[in-house]
Amino acid sequence: MCGIALAGIVAGTAYRPADAGDGPGTTVAAGSRLDSCDSSTLDARLANPGQAAQFPESGDVTPQQAAEYERLLREAMLPLRGQQAEPTREVPVVVHVISASDGRGAVGEWQVKRQIDVLNRAYRGGYAFGGEGADTGFRFHLRDITRTVNDTWFRDFSRHRDEVRASLHRGGAETLNLYTTRLDTGLLGYSTFPQNQKQAPEQDGVVVAYDTLPGGDRNRFNEGHTATHEIGHWLGLFHTFQNGCDDPGDYVDDTAFEREAASGCPRGRDTCRRQPGDDPVTNFMNYSEDACMTHFTRGQGQRMVDHWMAFRSGKGRGESDPRTAAAPPSASERGPSVDVRAAVAPDGRVEVSTSLR
Length: 357
Prior knowledge:
Elements: E1 14-15, E2 26-27, H1 39-43, H2 63-77, E3 89-99, H3 109-123, E4 138-149, H4 151-155, H5 157-168, E5 176-181, E6 189-191, E7 206-209, H6 225-234, H7 298-312, E8 338-344, E9 350-356
Parallel strand pairs: 3-4, 3-5, 5-7
Antiparallel strand pairs: 1-2, 4-9, 6-7, 8-9
């Protein structure tokens, strides 16, 4: 299953094999690859435990579910024929930091801001080599940070996730609600799909393990690309290995077919030899390590735009609720001030809301 694994490190990135102990890492030049096998890399991006079959959030959807999502997309796009999408789509982001009373999970404001920087670089094609990637046109701006100290939620987020999201969710379909917390061992994050937003708007969003943010402690997955990957699902993308070697693959014409998820960063991997091209190991929608991921394709960018117009922009079936939509910040709100509010709930939960202005 694992095959060739582990590597694809950009210049200046330290790589430490799992069995190397506490010694110094190895810095590998851009474009280089190291080959070994580590199944934990694959496990780290596996399915969300306890997910409802109706609303898969791991990105691991069945061929039937993928086909249904595709049908819903095509149906929603029919009335939008001839409409032009804006060249740049601004996505307001509300980050919900859920931590424990002992301080675990209380990621700093600097980490949140670095995560937004990573997203903007990734979605404009800033990590790509040569012409492999594309500017998707999506840009993310940080609207708010909320902070919730709750040991129960932090200890077992997956069990309480529906309650948490219903309580904290902000904005409409166009607003990205990003939750950071502790997740079960081997789980990095998960996301809802845009097709489900209208039916369960309070559950819409992305969840990532707090230690996957830039500068976190998750070895090989701490450069912020768990959020990059999961937001790809939030914008409608499937994994590059969706449907394996069989048509229609991931429903994107310019990503090569792939039989199964990549682990680490294998070089020259081709699991669908009857289909053209090597596996898209460095694509953000694979399971590779953060340092290996470099790009989205033009086809993926267009597919995200289609989903945005159909389900998140207010032009299609997934119209936002204007009463709850988080408006983009005005010029007067872009100064350096920070507004912090704290409250103690009846159950003893301490909630701190930090609004960036």
